[in-house]
Amino acid sequence: MLGEAEALLARAKAKAKAIETVAKALEKEHGPNAVSITLAEQYISAFSELAKQGNTIILPSNTGDVTGMVAQVRASIEAIWFILHVRKLRKLYIQFFF
Q: Which helix (H) or strand (E) holds 46?
């Protein structure tokens, strides 16, 4: 039981570190573009794997719209980025004025 808990904690720490790394990368000049390319590659790869696994697949009606999917994800990332920056600004404001 202790081994399982330690493994779970190690995975959680690794995931947190990965999220932190991605967040820092997104703040760089071309970070969102890199994420868009990676997402498009993963999207195409996922559907390729589905096609290999069997002969019956249920797909969304717009599977060929990689650009649309990337745009949706990118909009979500930008919204998250905005929220994170608002929180940072609020924290700085509180530290400065209170």
A: helix 31-53
Question: Which residue range forms the structural domain that includes residue 20?
Answer: 2-97
- Whole-number Å distance between alpha carbons of 59 and 50: 10
Count of domains for the chain = 1
Residue of 43, 36, 37, 40 whose CA lies nearest to 78 = 36
Structure pTM?
0.42
With contact defined as beta carbons under 8 Å apart, do 77 and 32 qualify?
yes
Q: What is the pLDDT along the chain (98 residues), one digit of tens a residue?
A: 778 888 888 998 998 888 788 777 777 777 777 777 777 787 777 777 766 766 665 666 676 777 887 787 778 777 777 777 777 777 776 777 76
**Terminal C-alpha separation, the chain:** 46
Instruction: Give the single-character DSSP code of 55.
Output: S
The token duo for 63 is 């599977």
- The owner of tokens 């794997």 is 49
